[in-house]
Amino acid sequence: MAVGVFDSGLGGLTVLDAVSRKLPDVPFVYFGDNAHAPYGVRTHDDIFNLTCAATERLWDEGCDLVILACNTASAAALKRIQETWLPPNKRVLGVFVPLIEALTERQWGDNSPPREVSVKHVALFATPATVASRAFQRELAFRAIGVDVEAQPCGGVVDAIEQGDEILAEALVRSHVESLKRRMPQPQAAILGCTHYPLMQKAFQESLGADVKVFSQANLVAESLGDYLARRPEFLGSGTRSKFLTTGDPAYVSSKATQFLRRQIVFEAA
């Protein structure tokens, strides 16, 4: 009954932590493609091919349902995966859906015309590839009108987090927030559009100010996954054991993962 969780690196551990708390009886297999991180500077074809390879590896572990706990992969590859590559007995889900549900206060299955929502000025912080894809704006436009989205590509933040350099990561966050606020001085809400960024949520909130509502994905994804599996239990796969897989050096990745989550994490070679 295992479920797969995929990310280009360590950021998806924020999602894994939340879904594990929400669904403690479900084994989760985490796959970090650390050897090829970060994805945010790669081409869409690269991201598609790497994401497909990781997904197939998770299928081998008995995970019929795979969560792309990576905004870059969700933005650049998910639609193509679902439309051109996915067999009918498997499911691959992204992390944009719960975020847009929360922001627009409507359920994903609600196909009524787009309508006015209370939030009008939204700051989006994401990797360069996610920003370039405009996937967030496209999906938001199907559901809401009159929302101004200002996107800030946050170069360097993922690299600093993956290297365990919190001081550099915090400095980069402050710089990116300052850059965005020059274009949108008073955002009402901010989207942390990368699963690495919740590790820096305090820095984002402090830089934005207490009056800006910061939407982070991990808990929203956990709630959505719980609801999805209650409706579609047939996608609980045959896997029985939780594990952590990486394409990088298992000892190094384990050390950084343990540092981030403040509990021991042991990765195996993928």
Can you tell me about this structure?
This protein is α/β, with parallel strands linked by helices. It has 2 domains: 3-96 and 218-269, Rossmann fold (3-Layer(aba) Sandwich); 97-216, Rossmann fold. The protein is 45% helix and 17% strand. It is built from 12 helices and 12 strands. The strands form 3 sheets. It has a 6-stranded parallel β-sheet with strand order 4-3-1-2-11-12, with helices on both faces. Helix 1 (13-22) packs across helix 11 (217-231) and helix 9 (166-183) packs parallel to helix 10 (201-208). The longest helix is centred in the middle third of the chain and has 18 residues, at 166-183. The radius of gyration is 18 Å and the shape is globular. The two termini are 20 Å apart. The mean pLDDT is 93.
| Terminal residue distance | 20 Å
Number of domains: 2
Q: Any idea what the shape is? A: globular
Task: Please tell me the overall pLDDT.
Answer: 93
Which strand-content bin applies to the residues? 15-25%
Strand ordering within the main sheet: 4-3-1-2-11-12
* Poorly predicted segments: none
Please give the share of residues in helix: 40-55%
CATH level-two architecture of the largest domain: 3-Layer(aba) Sandwich
Sheet/helix structural class:
alpha/beta
List keywords for this structure.
single chain; 270 residues; alpha/beta; Rossmann fold; four-stranded parallel β-sheet; 12 strands; globular
What topology emerges from the helices and strands here?
Layout: E1 3-7, H1 13-22, E2 28-32, H2 44-60, E3 65-68, H3 71-76, H4 78-84, E4 91-93, H5 96-104, E5 115-116, E6 121-126, H6 128-133, H7 135-141, E7 144-145, E8 148-153, H8 157-162, H9 166-183, E9 189-192, H10 201-208, E10 213-215, H11 217-231, E11 243-246, H12 250-261, E12 268-269
Helix pairs in contact: 1-11, 5-11, 9-10
